[in-house]
């Protein structure tokens, strides 16, 4: 068989289901081999960046990698933004690129560049196949690395002449392994420290959205009552309706949930990623005692110096804590600050639920209505922009992986291609992507992909005619902002041009009904909402005046 045939067989052995991408001349052999597979589905996209975002969301939702594919040169460079986003947001991914013949890579040559060197800073591993006999080892290592905590992207480059070579090898069998777990001695120390605390609190990070970890975390909170503030990417690790859910933390300015952290005498960080919410925002000067529990040791930072580090499988560590709670009886803590935070933040979330504004819609109202029409298992994807801050604060979740926010690399253009992938993984769920008008137009060409695949999804665009988040931040710092305005298309006509359903909502009172209608329409729907971003400055002012009750 050819080397490209062997690579496809290896991907099949690893259980790869999807590859998203744009083919080119230099990966033609691979594409012909892939066409023969009855186990892997290739999704043709309109841009390589969209392909990478689709693979990222597949990885985040399933825990298994999908592939994103591009050719050499510009095909590879187009992939890199989505690849970096996936890697920093801990989503497993395989990045597959073609390359010119190995006989011309040592010199100046058409479209040739050091692709593996480019991908090294944004992947867990980047390599080139120089010998077809190595393909089974390379593919096994690549998939294993992509899945291993913390998950991420792995890049494999296949030169066009290597792809054609004959090879007499077979895929390596897949062998599952268990992650290392903490020992009893460190868990005894951790549990003893929790028992000593008067006002402990949990900051839950990205690692807590793993199903097993979320289950054990909920059990721990039900047994102890300890409250949980979630980073943007940990939403849904505990149910929003639980008394111990203290909502979301991570805005640059101090918000109500931060009051619970201020009042705590022990901060338990679980699966915490520093890229999400830097400790200088909640532990400046290392005033807090920190118990770090994660798959990996703590990152070194002057504001993050844990008293105790528990390193190993997070779900197992939480199970060990639960066993100790069962053995040693109930724990006693002072939860008054946490009760005050939940009460005050709940009022914030409900404040504009009955708005009847016309012309524009407040962000709070748009998200309240979205939450009302979305079921517990339905999936919301946020693009990057001012709307992301509102989603992080106001859209709360019942289940993990039901609100997907890019918060490590934070790339715009994420939500539309991501929603396409989510609809492929869960065709029976409601899928809602929320974009600003700026972010939506960055990958709007994937509207054609969604229509071609007849995806069941809704994209809600918050229209303000400019880069709202940049304006928000410039205004906060300088009292004004630079010229950030741009024009927009006729949204309803744009939707019609791509075969989508289109809706323009200018009355707050009608938004919920329109969203419900969009979820029942055949194929993709676009819902455009002129948004009232005057609320941005009002929120900043309120947070600046915040006084913690205790």
From TrEMBL:
A single GO BP:
isoleucine biosynthetic process
Boundaries of each Thiamine pyrophosphate enzyme TPP-binding domain copy? 383-529
Instruction: Name the InterPro entries on file.
Output: DHS-like_NAD/FAD-binding_dom (IPR029035), THDP-binding (IPR029061), Thiamin_PyroP_enz_cen_dom (IPR012000), Thiamin_PyroP_enz_TPP-bd_dom (IPR012001), TPP-bd_CS (IPR000399), TPP_enz (IPR045229), TPP_enzyme_TPP-bd (IPR011766)
One Gene Ontology molecular-function label: thiamine pyrophosphate binding
The answer on whether this UniProt entry bears the keyword Plastid reads no
The yes or no answer to whether the keyword Aminoacyl-tRNA synthetase is present is no
Protein keywords: Thiamine pyrophosphate
Q: Which domain of life does this protein belong to? A: Bacteria
What positions does the domain Thiamine pyrophosphate enzyme N-terminal TPP-binding occupy?
1-116
GO terms under cellular component: acetolactate synthase complex
Which segments constitute the Thiamine pyrophosphate enzyme central domain? 188-321
Similarity comment? Belongs to the TPP enzyme family.
Name it.
Acetolactate synthase large subunit
